[in-house]
Amino acid sequence: MSPELAVELIAEAVFTIIEILLVLIVPGLLLGIVVAVVQAATSVQEQTLTFLPRMLLTLLMVVFAGHWLIQTLVDWFANLSTLIPGVFG
Q1: Which pLDDT score, from 0 to 100, does residue 15 have?
Q2: Contacts of 57-64 spanning 24+ positions with Cβ under 8 A
Q3: Transmembrane ranges (predicted)?
Q4: What is the DSSP secondary structure assignment for residue 31, as one 8-state letter?
Q5: Which burial class, exposed, middle or buried, applies to 71 when counting CB atoms under 10 A from its CB (0-12, 13-18, 19+)?
Q6: How much is the pTM?
Q7: Residues 1-52: pLDDT tens digits?
């Protein structure tokens, strides 16, 4: 295995992980900011007001983007499986 191929495989894996996590994390982050602003404006400091909406939104993102998430992982593994014989052969 050449160093260039190793770097390419690692970079593609990291990019895929970041791409998948951004779909799940960013909406929850944005909702958390909105809830924090509402809490600051109303002086209500209840912990469940930040946790529950973010958890539900993350669950909804898994439901709605689940097909794309699985397809992205399947594509990455398919690409990896085509490269394995060339790496070790």
Answers
A1: 94
A2: 57/27, 57/28, 57/31, 58/24, 58/27, 58/28, 61/23, 61/24, 61/27, 61/28, 62/24
A3: 13-39, 51-70
A4: H
A5: exposed
A6: 0.75
A7: 778 888 888 899 999 999 999 999 999 999 999 998 998 898 888 877 888 8
